[in-house]
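user: can you give me the structure for this one chain? tokens are fine.
assistant: on it. calling the predictor now.
[tool input]
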Amino acid sequence: MVSTTHWGGKRFPVSRILLVEDDRDQAEVLGFSLRKDRHAVHMAYTGNEGLRTVATFRPEIIILDVLLPDLTGFELLPFLRKETAVPILLLSAARCSEDDRAAGLALGAQDYLAKSHSHRELLVRVRNLLDLQANTNIIHLAIGARQLTIFADRQKVEWDGEQVRLTATEFKILLQLVRGKGATISYCELGEAIWEDPLTDASTIKSHVSRLRAKFMDKEGGSDLIRNRHALGYALNICRAEESRANDAKGKFLQQSSR
């Protein structure tokens, strides 16, 4: 349940990583290294399985093998990009050529690595992608029919174009929920991330979240920004229209790949 880990003296949040790799032995080895570094890893062994998993697992990084049994990583990239904007790291069995790297980057990947490189280098590159993701200055999210905009460097938040004034703690909580991409963030994870104490009293967290939700109430007194997951924690609502578009893209892809 701990939400941070250490690397070179720095603290990083534990992240969800989708590993799409058809070689099960290789996947187990890579998965072991990533889990040892305190990441949550979900394995997919085909392109189709990887695409289906994105909507449910909501990864923060995707590690994608170039050669898969049903299609290549290059073929899968455009369909992944229709579902998610998270960083994608391509893995190649051989030392990657300049043309391969250029093709992968042009299709939307953020990095390209040959499997011959050490696992330590893979972890460093994952760290770099996480750091880049965490320091994105402006975040736009559709929540229901409304638009949430976060200016991370200025700690400024807009709700349908109107500024919402938050305390420093409220802003940190909102940012953690946004980075969770709809997944439930437990009380322990929020306590560790905000107060550096996973045993932070649940009533303290509930009080801060309650005040945060109140600032996003609509005229009818309802708020569709944050979901209370009973005794588990909290999650940010994800735009159902975006999920519908992702499912449409997935369906088209599955139809094409089955021909």
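assistant: here you go. Residues 240-257 form the longest helix (18 residues). Residues 138-241 form a domain with the Arc Repressor Mutant, subunit A fold (CATH 1.10.10.10).
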